[in-house]
Prior knowledge:
The complex is a heterodimer. Chain A has 8 helices and no strands. By secondary structure, chain A is mostly helical. The longest helix of chain B has 22 residues, at 38-59. Chains A and B meet through helix 1, helix 2, helix 3, helix 5 and helix 6 of A and helix 1, helix 2, helix 3, helix 4 and helix 5 of B.
Amino acid sequence: MEIFDNLNWLIYGILIGLFVPTTLLIGNKQFGISSSMQNICSVIFPKTKSIFSGYDFKNHEWKLYFVIGIILGGFLAANIFSETTIAYLPERYYTFKGILTLFTGGLLVGFGTRYARGCTSGHSITGLSLLKLSSLIATISFFVGGLIYTFLF
Amino acid sequence: MNKYASIILGIAFGFILTKSEVISWFRIQKMFRFEEPYMYLIIGTAVIVGIISVQILKIFGIKSITKEELNFSGKVLNKGTVIGGIIFGIGWAITGACPGPIFAQIGTGEYAAVSTFVGAISGAFLYNLVKDKLP
């Protein structure tokens, strides 16, 4: 099979999986990203903080710095350590309609990940690594949602 | 975890996400359309490595460098796991980005992803506004 001629997926998969033990070992933190949205919201709009009742901001504070790192990492990978330019989004998203579509999609990502208590990293990578049923059900639901949109719209 | 360690780990993660192209809308489309096994192979490998790592940590009773018992707790399972999960899945297919990749896309210069980011923050805020009324 063609996919086995190039084993990049294996290297990337291993590297991504290693984030689970790394954040546990360094800070006793479960690897996850989506809750950073609540921390960012409370930093940009401090007055909104009261609405996130029951949310432990301190416990998730490291994610604020982590996502700043992700932006830098994306910049380095695409602009400094790269010979070619790759498009990560279709060109049609650079229209008024496209921007609105992305905003709507983002709204669903932000809302859905809070409601489900996690995203691909928190549930599908970390939760499955911990063999948690809630994360298996969440991961299946993510795919059901993705398939619904892909094949019905 | 201190901020410097967090930023350095974040840079590594953003770099890996970008180089592996899992932040690409096109790759996500090919995943949901079953056109290539690439995304499944990456996620599958990551989970296997995660499972093995966690088992090693458990078997040897390894503690964090801060000398704490490691937190292996899971997340709650309720209706939100399924409903929220499906809502997120739809958003993932539309934007080609889950929360981590939103930031990586912005970093690469895909500025349209700023709109995804604003949407995601608004969505998290909206959830907290209505969470008491949800099933």
